[in-house]
Each structure stands twice: as structure tokens, then as C-alpha cells.
Amino acid sequence: MIKTLWRLSREAIRYRTLYIVAILSTLALTAVNLTAPKLLSAMTGLVEKGLTEEGLHTIGLMTAALVALYLLRILFRFLSNYLAHKAAWYLVGDLRTRTYDKLEHMHLGYFHDKQTGDLMSRIVNDTRDFELLYAHMIPESITNLVTFTGVLIVLLTINWKLALITCAPIPLIFLSGIIFSKKVRPFFRISQKKMGELNGKLQDNLSGIHEIQSFGREEYETEQVNEHNFEHIRAMLQALKLSGIFHPSVEFLSSIGTILVVGFGGYLAYKEGLSVADIVAFLLYLGLFYGPVTGLANLLENMQQSMAGAERVLAVLDAPTEIQDLPDAGPLKDVKGEITFDHVSFSYGENIPVLKDVSFVCRPGQMLALVGPTGVGKTTLTQLISRFYEPTAGRILLDGQNIRHVTLDSLRQNISPVLQDTFLFNGTIAENIGYAVPDASMEEIEAAAKAAKIHDDIMAMPDGYKTLVGERGLRLSGGQKQRVAIARAILRKSPVIILDEATASVDVETEQQIQQAIAGVAGTRTIIAIAHRLSTIRNADQILVIEEGRITERGTHDELVKLGGSYSRMNNIQAN
To answer: Which keywords describe this protein according to UniProt (predicted)?
Structure first.
């Protein structure tokens, strides 16, 4: 836990000015709280001795001093609370952005075993626990420590015997705190994990609401959500059960201390003549003394909860970024679009080979098509070009430069993907087409749409280019989404375009429109196309047949048909 706390302190250091002022205000507040009972005790002593005119004047001055102290307490409490919260929430906001930014730069393999909802929970929910740590725990811990130490010193100066009696329950309280921390933290970890799983389930179900309704699985999915919901609740209740035992135990031990002080204080008053003023002072300070000790229960509970959330956030921030710019990486310039695979192999992990010794050259402006059964590595091959994964062997060159030695930003700036599962953002059609070129003019957006054969469809919509596409483009048909994605790629003017099953889920008429759009850019861009419909790649300059991770055939459409191999069989099946 110490290691985690040290790691967290490094995150908060950028807001040290706010924290320093908040801590100084906290110390000043503690000083005020320690001074006020002393003045009240002195006033009681004056009254006990009998009031004189001079005594009344002194009491008047003390009363004014008390009013000033209480006004200062308002000021210091405001500065302490507000500045600590301000620093904490700035930290939360900063961590949310940094956690999201870290996820943006993670390689695609990182997300294979992650749920989107769980990652969202880490960004939104778990980062919020930092506010608990930095706005409450740290300031309160400082206040409690200083108050406890200051009061103990004051009590020792009043009567050291009674002060030692006051401390009798402290070891038991701290021992119970250590036991509580060890017992409760695992339940808070489970609770945070279950909350992430609940968010993941909700995200999946809301994204798949059409399938749930179509297959009549509403009742089943409600039960699943309910189970995830109550798994989180059960873990939280386990933690709260321990808290429910710990809090009263601390209060009981503190009460025993008070009873000992009252009983032993009466004995000292009887035997040693302890003054009424000292007894009053002792009782006034007793609340301040046991307040921090009793507050230890809340602090320990909050610490375990915030640490559980902090660990989940730090697990993301500290995760290694496997694909990043090498020290010698430089930007790509004047890219023509020649792509070379030089004996490239790739595996997911150590035991799942996907590509084996793949070699080819695609000249600038050529169209290279990849065909073959599902799951043989065609999509993976295109993802290697953009460095979403690193090959386990061999080299990939763009215009003769090893892509490992160029900056990721400049590499991906020169490649535009059009995927089978087209993703559109919840904005207007114009915003989606211009997504990769934020400063594109409306004329440029319309020109790209015309080239992608989607302009007429857009103009037929009531709001034209201002039409909202809905989440993931749900308000558009599959063919319209594909052509919007092609327009987006055309507008970017990248020298390389990757088409991954761009016509897989559209009708014949839409397929012809997409083919016309592709034909419009063929020859001016290097195109890497994955296709199961061979009709869409008849005019490709080179076709690679991939089977079991290897290139088994290569050539033009006519050459491969004459070869009489796998491609020829696929062509005959589709022709019939």
C-alpha cells in the first residue's frame, strides 16, 4: 500500500500549491481549535477565583479573542475544504483525460480481453475515488494527527497522570484499525471490479438491444444485469458489514477512555486537589482528543475504498505501451504508397500463429486484393501496415522505409481505412466525412461525397449534410454508411486506402455504387482490398490468395482463374 500511496503522490504533485495552502489552512484551523478551549478554561478559572472589575475586563478581552478565533475558524475551514477539493477535482479531471489518452494509444491486442464498460468505469468511476483520497483523507489525516499531538501535549501539561489514563484505549483502537484495513480492502476491490463488470454488461446490452428484442431475450438479459448488479451490492455490503462492526467498536473504546478520565479525574480532585478549571479544560480537550481517534474509522474505510479504485486506474496508466515511436523514428514525407512485406510472420501471443513468411510488393497506385477463407489473417495483415500490431518476424516497408522507424502519427496520416463494420460518430454526415480533416470546407466534403457516390442520397435527406447519423450511424443503411466511410477516406487524400470487406453487407445496386467509387480513386491511390465477393476485385492489379496464414496463389484475376487452384474454385462457386 505504501508503494501505491507514493505513486499517487507523484500524480498529485502538479497541484502542490493548492495543497500547500490547504494544508497550511488546516494547520491554522487546528491551532484555533486548540487555543479556544484554553481560553475557555482560563475564563472558568477567573470566575472560580471570584470576579473583580479587572477580571471582568480580562473576560471581555478573552470573549473578543474567542469571537476572532471563531471567525478565523470559518476562514481557515473554507480555505482548507475548498482548496483541497479544488486540487482533488482538478486531479480527477486530469486523470480521467490521461487514462483515456493512455487507452487511445494502447495497441489493439490490449483490448482483446477487456470490456468497454469496464474501461469506462475505470475512467469515470474509479478516478472519482481520488477526490475522496485527496479532498478528505489527506487533509483530515493531517488535521487529526496535529490535533491529536497538540491535545496530548496540552493534556500532559495539565496533568500527566490523567493524560496517560486518557491514552489507555489508543493501542487497542490502532490494532483494530490494522485488522479492519486488511479485512475490508479485498471487498472494496471486488466491489470496484463488479461495478466495472456491470458497466460492461450494460454497455453490451444497450449496444445489442436490437438482437435482444429480436430473439426475445429480454427476461434473460434482465436477470443477467440483476445478477451483476447484486454481485456488486453483495461485495459492498460485506465491506459495510465490517465497517458496521468496526465503527461502534472504536466508539466503545473511546467511551471507555472518557469513563476512565471522569473516574480517575474525580479521584485526583479528591486526593490531590485537581482544580475545577483543570477538570473543565480536560473535559473540553477530551472531545478534541478522541475526535481524531474516532475519525480513524472513517479514514480507514475511505482509504481502502479509494485505494481499490486507484489501483484500477494505475493498472491502466502503468500498462506498457507496446507500440510506440522508436527513438530514431522520423516522419514520413512525400509518400507515394509502395508497400512491401519482406518475409513477415505474426502470432497472437506465442502459440497462435496467424501469418507465416508473407512477402509481396504493391506498387504506388496499384490495387492489391486479399482473398481466402475467414480467419486466415487477411485483416491482421492490413492492421500490420498501420502498426496496430508488430510483426513477430520480417519487415514492412512503406516507400522503402521500415515502418518501425517512422513516427506512428505520420504513418497513419498516410493510410485511410474503410472497414466492414463501419463506425460513424454520433454527429452529422458532414462531421463524419470531415472527421479526419477538421478544417475541410463544405465544398471539399461535398466533392468527396460525390466521388463516393453518396451525395445524391444525402441531398434526398431532409437535413442534407446536417443530418444526424445516430449512435454508430444507426440512422443510415449499411450501404450509406460504407459510402460515407469511403468519402471520409477520399477526403483525407491518403496515398494508401485499406478496404476491408467494404461491400460485404450491401445489395447489388449499392455494391455497384461502391465499386464505382473505388474505381474513381484507383490508380491515384494504393488500395489494399479484402474481399469475399470476387466480382469487386476483378480489376485488381494483383490478387493474393491466403490460406492458413501463407500466400498460396498470386496473380491477376484471369491468371488465377486459368491456374485452376483455390481462387478458380471460389470463382466458379460464386459464378454459379
So the answer is: ATP-binding, Nucleotide-binding
